[in-house]
Amino acid sequence: MTTGITLAGLALSLAIFWANFRPWWKGSREVKQLLPFGQGFLLGAVSTVCAGGILGWLAGCAATAANQGGDKATVGLTGSNSTAPLARGTLGDLTPEGAILVVLLTVGVILAWKAAGKAEKKRLAGGAFVGATLCLTAGVASLLSWLPAALNDGGGYLRAAIEGAGIL
């Protein structure tokens, strides 16, 4: 996994975010139009805490692609190199119970992908890319630091319910 995201990688990630957010903002602003991007963003964000797994590897690939693509775009457009790294952040760790919810989330996103049209697939992919890259920054990781704890707690409640602890 890459060590973090650069200024150029941030620029590319924010450009993809804006390309997905702007049509919603200029359009009818129905929340359901944000759902594909949001699903992808959530999966991309939690992928950054999946060290050693396929999701963690994909998050690392997204960061590398953002840094390299953003650098080429920035140098090509401005002539200035923007490879300065940003402060790295991390969302935290998953428990085995939290990991189960990430698996279920992944299955849900895969099913949404299969049912999606071409435009929705682009939004899902864009959301995953943006989530995986922005959550490597200290600011966004700090803002979403509650996410792994929510997954861990939710997985714990699911386990307790299945084991008969009387939560449900």
Explain this structure to me?
The chain has helices spanning 7-26, 35-47, 54-78, 96-115, 118-134, 138-143, 146-162. It has one domain (7-22, 35-162). Helices cover 70% and strands 0% of the residues. It has seven helices and no strands. The chain has 168 residues and is an all-alpha fold. The model has no long low-confidence stretch (mean pLDDT 93).
Number of E-state strands: 0
H/E order of the elements?
Answer: HHHHHHH
Gap between N and C termini, in Å? 39 Å
- Count of separate structural domains: 1
Largest sheet: none
3D shape: globular
Structural class: mainly alpha
Low-confidence runs (pLDDT<50, min 5 residues)? none
Number of H/I helices: 7
- Radius of gyration, in Å, reads 17 Å
Overall pLDDT score: 93
Salient structural properties:
168 residues, mainly alpha, 7 helices, globular
Kindly summarize this structure in a few lines.
The protein is built from 7 helices and no strands. With 168 residues, it is mainly α.
